[in-house]
Protein backbone atom coordinates (compact mmCIF):
# COMPACT_ATOMS: atom_id res chain seq x y z
CA UNK A 1 0.00 0.00 0.00
CA UNK A 2 1.45 3.36 -1.00
CA UNK A 3 0.08 5.57 1.80
CA UNK A 4 -3.10 6.89 3.45
CA UNK A 5 -3.95 8.83 0.30
CA UNK A 6 -4.64 5.59 -1.58
CA UNK A 7 -7.10 4.56 1.12
CA UNK A 8 -8.74 7.96 0.88
CA UNK A 9 -9.32 7.41 -2.84
CA UNK A 10 -10.60 3.88 -2.16
CA UNK A 11 -13.17 5.20 0.36
CA UNK A 12 -14.34 7.89 -2.05
CA UNK A 13 -15.03 5.29 -4.75
CA UNK A 14 -16.71 2.94 -2.25
CA UNK A 15 -18.99 5.74 -1.07
CA UNK A 16 -19.74 7.19 -4.49
CA UNK A 17 -20.00 3.93 -6.46
CA UNK A 18 -18.14 5.46 -9.42
CA UNK A 19 -14.85 7.03 -10.45
CA UNK A 20 -16.57 10.24 -11.54
CA UNK A 21 -18.39 10.66 -8.22
CA UNK A 22 -15.17 10.02 -6.30
CA UNK A 23 -13.34 12.45 -8.57
CA UNK A 24 -15.82 15.20 -7.81
CA UNK A 25 -15.52 14.59 -4.07
CA UNK A 26 -11.73 14.55 -4.22
CA UNK A 27 -11.39 17.26 -6.90
CA UNK A 28 -9.42 14.76 -8.95
CA UNK A 29 -9.64 13.58 -12.54
CA UNK A 30 -11.60 10.26 -12.78
CA UNK A 31 -8.77 8.71 -14.77
CA UNK A 32 -6.38 9.51 -11.92
CA UNK A 33 -8.82 7.98 -9.46
CA UNK A 34 -8.90 4.82 -11.58
CA UNK A 35 -5.09 4.60 -11.62
CA UNK A 36 -4.93 5.05 -7.86
CA UNK A 37 -7.49 2.30 -7.31
CA UNK A 38 -5.56 -0.01 -9.62
CA UNK A 39 -2.35 0.75 -7.73
CA UNK A 40 -4.02 -0.04 -4.41
CA UNK A 41 -5.45 -3.29 -5.77
CA UNK A 42 -2.00 -4.28 -6.99
CA UNK A 43 -0.41 -3.55 -3.63
CA UNK A 44 -3.18 -5.42 -1.79
CA UNK A 45 -3.00 -8.35 -4.17
CA UNK A 46 -6.78 -8.53 -4.64
CA UNK A 47 -9.51 -6.80 -6.66
CA UNK A 48 -11.41 -4.32 -4.49
CA UNK A 49 -14.17 -3.39 -6.94
CA UNK A 50 -16.23 -5.09 -9.58
CA UNK A 51 -17.37 -2.88 -12.44
CA UNK A 52 -20.99 -3.14 -13.60
CA UNK A 53 -23.50 -0.98 -15.52
CA UNK A 54 -24.58 0.39 -12.13
CA UNK A 55 -21.05 1.51 -11.25
CA UNK A 56 -18.27 0.24 -9.02
CA UNK A 57 -19.39 -2.37 -6.47
CA UNK A 58 -17.21 -3.58 -3.63
CA UNK A 59 -15.86 -7.11 -3.86
CA UNK A 60 -15.64 -9.23 -0.70
CA UNK A 61 -12.05 -8.08 -0.25
CA UNK A 62 -13.10 -4.46 -0.73
CA UNK A 63 -15.90 -4.80 1.81
CA UNK A 64 -13.44 -6.21 4.35
CA UNK A 65 -11.10 -3.29 3.74
CA UNK A 66 -13.73 -0.56 4.33
CA UNK A 67 -13.79 -0.60 8.16
CA UNK A 68 -9.99 -0.57 8.29
CA UNK A 69 -9.86 2.33 5.82
CA UNK A 70 -12.43 4.22 7.88
CA UNK A 71 -10.39 3.61 11.02
CA UNK A 72 -7.36 5.04 9.21
CA UNK A 73 -9.45 8.02 8.10
CA UNK A 74 -10.51 8.65 11.68
CA UNK A 75 -6.97 8.27 12.98
CA UNK A 76 -5.67 10.70 10.36
CA UNK A 77 -8.30 13.28 11.34
CA UNK A 78 -7.47 12.90 15.02
CA UNK A 79 -3.74 13.18 14.34
CA UNK A 80 -4.28 16.27 12.21
CA UNK A 81 -6.36 17.85 14.96
CA UNK A 82 -3.79 16.98 17.62
CA UNK A 83 -0.95 18.55 15.62
CA UNK A 84 -2.90 21.73 14.94
CA UNK A 85 -4.09 21.98 18.51
CA UNK A 86 -7.14 23.83 19.70
CA UNK A 87 -7.65 27.20 18.05
CA UNK A 88 -10.14 29.89 18.88
CA UNK A 89 -11.96 29.52 15.57
CA UNK A 90 -13.15 26.56 13.53
CA UNK A 91 -11.77 25.93 10.05
CA UNK A 92 -12.06 23.51 7.16
CA UNK A 93 -15.24 22.26 5.49
CA UNK A 94 -18.34 20.84 7.18
CA UNK A 95 -21.35 19.63 5.18
CA UNK A 96 -24.79 19.47 6.83
CA UNK A 97 -27.75 17.54 5.44
CA UNK A 98 -31.29 18.56 6.30
CA UNK A 99 -34.92 18.31 5.15
CA UNK A 100 -35.65 21.31 2.97
CA UNK A 101 -37.96 22.97 5.51
CA UNK A 102 -35.17 23.51 8.01
CA UNK A 103 -32.62 23.89 5.20
CA UNK A 104 -34.56 26.78 3.65
CA UNK A 105 -36.01 28.62 6.63
CA UNK A 106 -33.83 27.84 9.64
CA UNK A 107 -30.29 26.70 8.91
CA UNK A 108 -29.23 29.57 6.59
CA UNK A 109 -29.30 32.22 9.31
CA UNK A 110 -27.89 29.82 11.94
CA UNK A 111 -24.97 28.84 9.71
CA UNK A 112 -24.37 32.46 8.68
CA UNK A 113 -23.88 33.41 12.34
CA UNK A 114 -21.51 30.50 12.91
CA UNK A 115 -19.61 31.58 9.79
CA UNK A 116 -19.38 35.14 11.10
CA UNK A 117 -17.67 33.80 14.22
CA UNK A 118 -15.43 31.42 12.26
CA UNK A 119 -14.27 33.09 9.02
CA UNK A 120 -11.99 30.15 8.10
CA UNK A 121 -14.87 27.65 8.21
CA UNK A 122 -16.61 26.56 4.99
CA UNK A 123 -20.21 25.45 5.62
CA UNK A 124 -22.36 23.58 3.10
CA UNK A 125 -26.08 22.82 3.46
CA UNK A 126 -27.42 19.87 1.47
CA UNK A 127 -31.21 20.25 1.20
CA UNK A 128 -32.78 17.03 -0.02
CA UNK A 129 -36.27 15.56 0.52
CA UNK A 130 -34.86 12.20 1.60
CA UNK A 131 -32.75 10.60 4.29
CA UNK A 132 -29.07 11.29 3.66
CA UNK A 133 -26.53 8.50 4.01
CA UNK A 134 -23.94 9.25 6.69
CA UNK A 135 -22.14 5.94 6.21
CA UNK A 136 -21.30 7.00 2.65
CA UNK A 137 -20.18 10.38 3.96
CA UNK A 138 -22.68 12.24 1.80
CA UNK A 139 -22.66 14.71 4.69
CA UNK A 140 -20.68 15.17 7.90
CA UNK A 141 -23.81 15.44 10.01
CA UNK A 142 -27.55 15.68 9.43
CA UNK A 143 -30.65 17.25 10.89
CA UNK A 144 -33.54 14.77 10.91
CA UNK A 145 -37.14 14.72 12.14
CA UNK A 146 -36.95 11.12 13.39
CA UNK A 147 -34.10 9.60 15.41
CA UNK A 148 -32.37 6.92 13.32
CA UNK A 149 -31.73 3.61 15.05
CA UNK A 150 -29.39 1.77 12.68
CA UNK A 151 -25.69 2.19 12.05
CA UNK A 152 -22.75 3.56 14.03
CA UNK A 153 -24.24 6.95 14.74
CA UNK A 154 -24.60 9.49 17.52
CA UNK A 155 -28.09 10.97 17.85
CA UNK A 156 -28.84 14.09 19.90
CA UNK A 157 -32.24 15.73 20.23
CA UNK A 158 -31.97 19.39 19.33
CA UNK A 159 -35.42 20.84 20.00
CA UNK A 160 -39.15 20.55 19.43
CA UNK A 161 -40.76 22.77 16.82
CA UNK A 162 -44.36 23.54 15.87
CA UNK A 163 -46.54 23.66 12.76
CA UNK A 164 -50.03 25.03 12.03
CA UNK A 165 -52.41 25.30 9.14
CA UNK A 166 -51.88 28.56 7.28
CA UNK A 167 -53.16 30.49 4.28
CA UNK A 168 -52.59 33.89 2.74
CA UNK A 169 -54.90 36.83 3.38
CA UNK A 170 -55.67 36.78 -0.34
CA UNK A 171 -56.81 33.16 -0.27
CA UNK A 172 -58.91 33.66 2.87
CA UNK A 173 -60.63 36.70 1.39
CA UNK A 174 -61.58 34.88 -1.83
CA UNK A 175 -62.82 31.60 -0.33
CA UNK A 176 -65.45 30.41 2.21
CA UNK A 177 -64.64 31.04 5.87
CA UNK A 178 -62.91 28.37 7.94
CA UNK A 179 -64.39 28.16 11.43
CA UNK A 180 -63.99 24.45 12.20
CA UNK A 181 -62.19 21.36 10.92
CA UNK A 182 -65.14 20.21 8.83
CA UNK A 183 -64.87 23.42 6.77
CA UNK A 184 -61.51 22.26 5.37
CA UNK A 185 -63.22 19.87 2.96
CA UNK A 186 -64.37 22.81 0.87
CA UNK A 187 -60.86 24.15 0.39
CA UNK A 188 -57.86 23.34 -1.76
CA UNK A 189 -55.21 21.66 0.37
CA UNK A 190 -51.46 21.80 -0.24
CA UNK A 191 -49.11 19.11 1.04
CA UNK A 192 -46.64 16.34 0.31
CA UNK A 193 -46.96 13.87 -2.54
CA UNK A 194 -48.30 10.93 -0.51
CA UNK A 195 -46.04 8.21 -1.90
CA UNK A 196 -42.93 10.42 -1.61
CA UNK A 197 -43.16 11.13 2.12
CA UNK A 198 -39.79 9.82 3.29
CA UNK A 199 -40.48 10.11 7.03
CA UNK A 200 -43.73 9.31 8.83
CA UNK A 201 -43.31 12.48 10.93
CA UNK A 202 -43.94 14.52 7.75
CA UNK A 203 -47.36 12.98 7.10
CA UNK A 204 -49.15 16.01 8.53
CA UNK A 205 -52.40 15.74 6.62
CA UNK A 206 -53.05 12.20 7.84
CA UNK A 207 -53.36 13.68 11.34
CA UNK A 208 -56.14 15.93 10.04
CA UNK A 209 -58.02 13.17 8.24
CA UNK A 210 -57.41 14.78 4.84
CA UNK A 211 -56.79 12.23 2.10
CA UNK A 212 -56.90 14.26 -1.13
CA UNK A 213 -54.07 16.69 -1.87
CA UNK A 214 -54.95 18.76 -4.98
CA UNK A 215 -51.59 20.55 -4.96
CA UNK A 216 -48.67 18.40 -3.84
CA UNK A 217 -44.87 18.52 -3.89
CA UNK A 218 -42.03 16.64 -2.24
CA UNK A 219 -40.52 20.06 -1.46
CA UNK A 220 -41.54 22.14 1.56
CA UNK A 221 -40.31 25.22 -0.27
CA UNK A 222 -42.69 24.61 -3.19
CA UNK A 223 -45.56 24.02 -0.77
CA UNK A 224 -44.72 27.21 1.10
CA UNK A 225 -44.72 29.31 -2.07
CA UNK A 226 -48.10 27.89 -3.09
CA UNK A 227 -49.50 28.91 0.29
CA UNK A 228 -47.79 32.31 0.12
CA UNK A 229 -49.22 33.11 -3.31
CA UNK A 230 -52.80 32.20 -2.38
CA UNK A 231 -53.05 28.83 -4.18
CA UNK A 232 -54.51 27.06 -1.15
CA UNK A 233 -53.93 26.27 2.49
CA UNK A 234 -51.34 23.96 4.01
CA UNK A 235 -49.36 23.02 7.07
CA UNK A 236 -46.55 25.54 7.59
CA UNK A 237 -43.68 25.52 10.08
CA UNK A 238 -44.10 28.27 12.65
CA UNK A 239 -40.47 29.23 12.07
CA UNK A 240 -41.22 29.84 8.37
CA UNK A 241 -44.20 32.16 8.89
CA UNK A 242 -42.12 35.34 8.94
CA UNK A 243 -40.54 34.47 5.57
CA UNK A 244 -43.58 35.92 3.78
CA UNK A 245 -45.97 38.72 4.57
CA UNK A 246 -49.72 38.23 4.55
CA UNK A 247 -49.75 34.70 5.96
CA UNK A 248 -52.18 33.79 8.70
CA UNK A 249 -52.51 30.72 10.88
CA UNK A 250 -55.89 28.94 10.75
CA UNK A 251 -57.67 27.00 13.48
CA UNK A 252 -54.62 27.51 15.67
CA UNK A 253 -56.12 25.84 18.72
CA UNK A 254 -57.66 22.90 16.82
CA UNK A 255 -54.67 22.17 14.58
CA UNK A 256 -51.31 22.33 16.35
CA UNK A 257 -48.57 19.86 15.46
CA UNK A 258 -45.35 19.29 17.37
CA UNK A 259 -42.30 17.63 15.85
CA UNK A 260 -38.63 17.39 16.83
CA UNK A 261 -35.24 17.98 15.24
CA UNK A 262 -32.36 15.59 15.87
CA UNK A 263 -28.68 16.00 15.09
CA UNK A 264 -27.19 12.79 13.68
CA UNK A 265 -23.43 12.31 13.48
CA UNK A 266 -20.89 9.61 12.79
CA UNK A 267 -20.25 7.85 16.11
CA UNK A 268 -16.47 8.11 15.75
CA UNK A 269 -16.65 11.87 15.26
CA UNK A 270 -17.34 12.34 18.97
CA UNK A 271 -13.58 11.98 19.44
CA UNK A 272 -12.92 15.00 17.23
CA UNK A 273 -12.94 18.26 19.17
CA UNK A 274 -13.59 20.28 16.02
CA UNK A 275 -16.77 18.36 15.20
CA UNK A 276 -17.95 18.47 18.82
CA UNK A 277 -17.48 22.22 18.97
CA UNK A 278 -19.34 22.72 15.71
CA UNK A 279 -22.18 20.39 16.76
CA UNK A 280 -22.58 22.33 20.01
CA UNK A 281 -22.66 25.65 18.14
CA UNK A 282 -25.15 24.31 15.58
CA UNK A 283 -27.55 22.90 18.17
CA UNK A 284 -27.42 26.04 20.29
CA UNK A 285 -27.96 28.21 17.21
CA UNK A 286 -30.98 26.17 16.10
CA UNK A 287 -32.56 26.32 19.56
CA UNK A 288 -32.13 30.10 19.78
CA UNK A 289 -33.42 30.71 16.25
CA UNK A 290 -36.47 28.52 16.83
CA UNK A 291 -37.34 30.45 19.98
CA UNK A 292 -36.90 33.76 18.16
CA UNK A 293 -38.93 32.88 15.08
CA UNK A 294 -41.75 31.03 16.82
CA UNK A 295 -42.22 33.99 19.18
CA UNK A 296 -42.99 36.15 16.13
CA UNK A 297 -45.97 34.05 14.95
Give a short synopsis of this structure.
With 297 residues, this protein is of the alpha/beta class. 40% of the residues lie in helices and 22% in strands.
Explained architecture:
- This protein has 297 residues and is of the alpha/beta class.
- It is built from 10 helices and 11 strands.
- Strands 3, 4, 5, 6, 7, 8, 9, 10 and 11 form a 9-stranded mixed β-sheet that branches. A two-stranded antiparallel sheet has the order 1-2.
- The chain starts with a helix and ends with a helix.
- 30% of the residues are buried.
- The model has no long low-confidence stretch (mean pLDDT 87).
Termini separation (Å)? Answer: 59 Å
Report on the biggest sheet. 9 strands, mixed
Tell me, briefly, the overall form.
Answer: elongated
Unreliable segments of 5+ consecutive residues: none
Name the average pLDDT.
87
Say how many strands there are: 11
The number of helical runs is: 10
As a percent range, the share of helical residues equals 40-55%
Return the structural class.
Answer: alpha/beta
User: What Rg, in angstroms, do the CA atoms define?
Assistant: 23 Å
Per DSSP, what share of the residues sits in E-state strands of 2 or more residues?
15-25%
Index terms:
297 residues, alpha/beta, 9-stranded mixed β-sheet, two-stranded antiparallel ribbon
Q: What does the secondary structure layout of this molecule look like, with pairings?
A:
Layout: H1 4-16, H2 19-26, H3 30-44, E1 49-52, E2 55-58, H4 60-84, E3 92-98, H5 100-105, H6 107-117, E4 121-127, E5 141-144, E6 153-168, H7 169-174, E7 189-191, H8 204-207, E8 215-216, H9 220-228, E9 233-237, E10 247-250, E11 257-266, H10 273-294
Parallel strand pairs: 3-4, 3-5, 7-8, 7-9
Antiparallel strand pairs: 1-2, 5-11, 6-9, 6-10, 6-11
Helix pairs in contact: 1-2, 1-3, 1-4, 2-3, 6-10
Amino acid sequence: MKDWDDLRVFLAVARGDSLSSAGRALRMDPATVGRRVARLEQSMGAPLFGKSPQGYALTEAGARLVPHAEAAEQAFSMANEAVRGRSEGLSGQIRIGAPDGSANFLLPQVCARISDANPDLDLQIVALPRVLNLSRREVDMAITVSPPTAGRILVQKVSDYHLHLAASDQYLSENPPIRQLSDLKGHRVIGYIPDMIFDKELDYLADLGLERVPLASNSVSVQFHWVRTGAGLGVVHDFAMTAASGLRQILKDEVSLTRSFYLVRHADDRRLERMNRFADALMQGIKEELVRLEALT
